[in-house]
Amino acid sequence: MTSKTTTTTKFKFKVEKLDGKSNFLLWKMRVTSLPVKEGTHKTLLGIEKPPKMEDDKWNDIDFRAKATIMPIR
User: Fold this and answer.
1) N or C: fewer beta carbons within 10 Å in the chain?
2) What is the pTM assigned to this prediction?
């Protein structure tokens, strides 16, 4: 099984690629915890932007969250 390392500005994570033989639920839990660890998960949950936060900052958090879970080929 190969693994992929995801590096964020604060943390380094290692999540194995899903190969169809692994436990999907465990893999899903690991992948979905990445945005939580880097504090970008609220954008993925559909939570509205806090009124005091600038649009650019919210969009930056949103893009970082999506980039964290997007597969790299």
Assistant:
1) C
2) 0.60
What whole-number distance in Å separates Cα of residue 5 and Cα of residue 17? 10
The backbone torsions φ and ψ at residue 11, rounded to the nearest 5 degrees and listed phi first, read -130, 165
* Cβ atoms 3, 31 nearer than 8 A: no
Q: Would you list the DSSP string of 5-73? A: EEE-SS-EEEEEPP-SSS-HHHHHHHHHHHHHHHT-HHHHTTPPPPTTS-HHHHHHHHHHHHHHHS---
Token pair in block for residue 6: 């995801």
Give the model confidence (pLDDT) of 25-62 as tens digits.
Answer: 888 888 888 888 888 888 888 888 999 999 999 999 99
- Tokens in use for 44? 């993925």
- pLDDT of 41: 86
